[in-house]
Amino acid sequence: MIRVRFAPSPTGNLHIGGARTALFNWMHARAKGGKFILRIEDTDLVRSKKEYLDEILHSLKWLGMDWDELYHQGERFRIYRDYAQALLSKGLAYQEGQAVIFKVQPEKIKISDLIHGDIEFDTSLIKDQVLIKSDSSPTYNFACVVDDASMNITHIIRGDDHISNTPKQIILYQALGFPLPEFAHIPLIMGAEGRLSKRTGATAISEYRALGYLPEALVNYLLLLGWSPGENQEIVEIREAIKKFDITAANKTASQFNLEKLNWVNAQYIKKLAPEKLLELVKPLLLEKKYIADNFDSNYLLSVVKLFQERITTLADFADYSDFFFKQTLEIAPDARKRLEARDYSREFRLLIERVDGLESFDHLSVETAFRALVSELKIKAAELVHPVRAALTGKTIGPGLFELMEVLGKEKIRQRLSAFIKGGV
RNA sequence: GACCCCAUCGUCUAGCCUGGUCAGGACAAGAGCUUUUCAAGCUCUCGGCACGGGUUCAAAUCCCGUUGGGGUCGCCA
Hints:
This protein is of the alpha/beta class.
């Protein structure tokens, strides 16, 4: 039985790199019918915080990763002490004050990493290792080995940055008489300028959630960083990805996080959504912005959603782009105002209101027919009236097709908004 | 500095193991089509095997070195 683990430390949020490590572990377990174990490494008594733990758990769930077992190192100090005691009695460790320290013997260690192949280390370069600190808490490497062994972890899939911890851990496996697991060190995710940091963009998974990225899209993108489903495939559903996943096929090279590509993946997922589903996702954001109330007409909302589904990159875009459908008083963007002030459109707007009001069946087709008839009579190009009308109705110079949005907006709002720009009233 | 890891378009990657297909795709960028705008979509273009040696009839692919990048050297995890 394959058993893997993700072992976050609740001293910060779940970030992009951690999520990818968790994902590769989870994928490996799910691909091979194994178990995915979550182990909270909260041995740092000072920096570990409950809020971080909650955030990590929530982010993992949001991304769709479920775990089969959950452990907290904070509840296992007794176990680490006992193993340290055993090493003490075997004469493999010594005490220094309250601390227990492992005596490192010089030897050559060779591991066969599932991703990197053979890696050799010389332990004479490693100094004696603290197992139990003076405050009686275990060190990372010690607790990690004791737990990985006692939890029967078969594959340790973790970041490249742990390669140099590996020999330190292997000598502990040997001293404790534990069998060695397989190791797979996956490359790190970098930012544009070196390390991925908050300076270069969002790092926490929760930030991406708030920004309006879909978990499926984020997972898909993360998967593409260091692994490929093959056959030039970019968009891959998680079920299919699990079938194809093979940890030994993961890349060795560090990859750079690229927001543009994430945006593209996210837009692809949004486009694939059923409009009703997109409505559900977008509704909380509109409620939060007070654009709508809880009992808002969902047919109207659905029509608006359909208008924007193909043109948004994130869920947050929706609220920004579609505000004019919900706000009572319109904000006119500077470039839209310029359009409206180019000349006096009072006559055209007045006529358009009349035509629209007179329409028996009101949909984008009939609106367009009426509109085109009007511009033809006025002997102007459609575009000459389209742009100012859009500006007056939406406060923007960009957006969905004018006639489609007019259909959804309705006669009443069209009349109100156009009137606002008619000199001397209607 | 020591030790370790890595090296294909600007970015993510396929190809590498089992040398021999114009080095393929995606994002971004540029152009065009479409068009009432912005997107989307479609078509095209630009652009890469870090460098130097070997091995071989043949090297992105195997070997060595150089350079470059990254990681680690805590009683943090």
